[in-house]
Amino acid sequence: MWRTDVYSNDLLNGTKYNFEMLGGRVVDGVEYIPRTGDFSASLNRINVMIWGQDLRSLSLRIS
C-alpha cells in the first residue's frame, strides 16, 4: 500500500525494478490518494487480493 503521488510512485517503480533485477517477485499493490481519511476501500481491496473475498459480502453472510 502506497500513497499515490509523484515521489511515492517513483520510489515504488525504482524499488520494484531493482528488486526484480535481483530475482525478486513483486505482486500488485494498492495505492491511496493523499489526504485520504478513510482507508476502508483500500483495505478492502487488500483483503480481496489476499483472500479473494469482499468484506462487505462476507459480513452479510455472517450476520
End-to-end distance: 29 Å
Structural class: mainly alpha
Residues in β-strands, percent: 5-15%
Number of domains: 1
Number of strands: 2
Q: Which regions contain 5 or more consecutive residues with pLDDT less than 50?
A: none
What is the element string, with H for helices and E for strands?
EHEHH
pLDDT average, as an integer? 83
Largest sheet: 2 strands, parallel
The general outline is flat
Question: Secondary-structure map with pairings?
Answer:
Layout: E1 2-3, H1 6-21, E2 31-32, H2 40-51, H3 55-62
Summarize the structure.
The protein is mainly alpha-helical. The chain has one domain. It has 3 helices and 2 strands.
How would you characterize this protein structure?
The chain has 63 residues and is mainly α. The protein has one domain (2-62). Helices cover 57% and strands 6% of the residues. The chain has helices at residues 6-21, 40-51, 55-62, and strands at 2-3, 31-32. A two-stranded parallel ribbon has the order 1-2. Helix 1 links the parallel strand 1 (2-3) and strand 2 (31-32). The model has no long low-confidence stretch (mean pLDDT 83).
Observed structural traits:
3 helices; mainly alpha; two-stranded parallel ribbon; 63 residues; 57% helix; flat
